[in-house]
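User: Here's a protein and a ligand (S-adenosylmethionine). What would the complex look like?
Assistant: Let me lay out the input and then the predicted complex.
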Amino acid sequence: MQRRSIIFLEQMNDTMIAGVPVEYKKIKEATAELKFNMASDLYTGSLLKTLSASKPAGRFLELGTGTGLATAWILDGLDAKSSLITIENNELLIDVAKKYISDSRVEFILADGYEWLKNYKEEKFDFIFADAMPGKYDLFDEAIGLLKKGGLYIIDDMLPQPNWPLGHDKKAADFINMLEERTDLLLTKLNWSTGIIIVSKI
Ligand SMILES: C[S@@+](CC[C@H](N)C(=O)[O-])C[C@H]1O[C@@H](n2cnc3c(N)ncnc32)[C@H](O)[C@@H]1O
């Protein structure tokens, strides 16, 4: 009988994350000072950067800027012709992102994501990181309607998190079921980081 190898390749140690954005440390410190506990982790950031680089001259959207940790990662993956719009309704948080991220490819919008999604009528996006209620659990059809064919829609926090309110597990389960029933979407679930789902539109 063949024995399976259980050798762990050191090179596959995913805690060793390279290519961290230069702004990351300062934003992280400011995030801790504000006691903001919904920030994206390093794994998610690294994945966002890798996937962002797959859409040259792309149009990118982030819903829920927070303090800009994922914003910095996404920007690090963009080429010079790409652009990113990021939406946040909390001025204190988005001001941290604006303070530390100086990049002409990004537009920071202080707005309610519900209103913004209902009113946005311009060009569609190649990539959406949906990291707030609007565009994910709420107004999903509006958000996915803004994604081009072949575009990527990314979500994190799909594994139970300490900050989930009561009943959120059912909401998350229903949301995943809905995604899996759609015939216009392909998706891969990663039981990694905070639980990531990568969706592409066909
Ligand atoms: C999970 S956090 C985002 C984390 C951020 N993407 C990062 O990388 O650290 C969700 C964010 O959505 C924002 N948010 C919640 N409701 C919103 C709304 N209606 N419109 C816009 N932003 C909203 C919150 O203030 C919070 O900053």
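Summary: DSSP finds seven helices and seven strands in the chain.
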